[in-house]
Amino acid sequence: MAGGTDEVAITGEGGHEVPSTPPRLLAAPGYAVRWLYQAYTAAWVRQVDPTLTGPQFAVLTAVHSYPGVDQGSLASSVALDRSTMADIAKRLEDRGLIVREPAPTDGRRKLLYLSEDGETKLTEIDRRARQLDERLLEGYAPAERERLLEELSMLSSRWEALAEDS
Fold it and tell me: What pTM did the predictor assign?
């Protein structure tokens, strides 16, 4: 097999030989995070909601926590850039899950509120999201879970700072 002797073939669909992931990729943190995110997204779609995305859920959760917040200010708190935030807010508004109102002092700023349907949807989805969280962290003691989440948060902050330095 091309690429070196470290690669081991595995059997894929239809009995065809599929190369395993090269060790160089497995040693790359960016690859590991991408793989983890893909697995998480697949689990989210199957177990939480096939149409409401994780970022949309984050926006609904934040709007629930901070009703009347302007969408520009909310963007960074849910790890979105302003244009993505505007797109997500518009999609949620089109689905009837949030209400966007112009700020009284500046009509360009949009204030966000959950609609009644948004409250209902968030309650339903939040329950399933918490169940998924439990399944994802199964086997970790409470202290290990806390430590893992702290590490992931610190890693995110460091990587975000690297991106800003570029």
Answer: 0.81
Q: Name the band, by pLDDT with cuts 50, 70 and 90, for residue 107.
A: confident
More confident residue, 18 or 142: 142
Return the sign of the alpha-carbon dihedral for residues 53, 56, 62, 65: negative
**Which of the 8 DSSP states describes residue 115?**
-
Per-residue pLDDT at 56 exceeds 60: yes
Buried/exposed 95-109: b ≥16 CB within 10 Å, e otherwise: eebbbbeeeeeeeee
Of 58, 92, 96, 61, give the one whose Cα is nearest residue 78. 58
Query: Which stretches does DSSP call E strand in the chain?
Result: 9-11, 17-19, 69-70, 98-103, 106-114
